[in-house]
Design a protein that fits this description.
By secondary structure, the chain is of the alpha+beta class. The protein has helices at about 10-15, 30-35, 75-95, 130-135, 145-150; strands at about 35-40, 45, 55-60, 100, 120-125.
């Protein structure tokens, strides 16, 4: 495979060695720097810094829990309502043809931050898999995080 120079990813790589959780401490403030697009009583949604597609959002509870059974009933309901609300916002603003919505639980399950439950919402469009990933093993994401946050933010 050829190498694609991507110095913007170094921040992510170095951050992975830190012990702090990217989802903790988001109860208030710092919307722009954290790319937070919505908040509810128990949950928040934020853009993924390294998206699979434009509008890739993660929805997480404020409380640091690793699995659904660790949430209270109110937290579970709030989290799922925010997933639905975020999907509706993406529907209106980006008009995708479909979605991948899911959870990776535990490190072996693919969770990059295994200690803090979060739900991925990845909008998909017909033809969004094109020659770039197939021929060049490169994914093109056409919008900046700042532009996407401005478009999707409810605050």
């Amino acid at each position: 495979m050829d190498k694609l120079w991507a110095p913007w990813r170094s921040k992510y790589i170095y951050m992975r060695k830190q012990k702090s959780c990217i989802f903790c401490g988001n109860e208030k403030g710092r919307n722009k720097s954290r790319h937070i697009i919505a908040r509810t009583k128990h949950s928040f949604s934020m853009l993924n810094l390294y998206p699979y597609n434009n509008g890739h959002v993660m929805v997480a509870p404020y409380r640091h829990v690793k699995s659904f059974e660790d949430l209270t009933g109110h937290e579970t309901a709030d989290l799922m309502k925010l997933v639905a609300k975020t999907k509706v916002t993406i529907d209106k603003k980006l008009k995708p043809d479909g979605y991948n919505i899911g959870v990776n639980l535990g490190k072996i399950g693919g969770a990059g931050f295994a200690g803090h439950l979060h739900i991925h919402i990845v909008p998909r469009w017909t033809g969004d898999t094109n020659f770039m990933p197939i021929c060049a093993d490169v994914k093109v994401v056409s919008e900046s995080l700042d532009a996407m946050q401005k478009l999707l933010s409810s605050e």
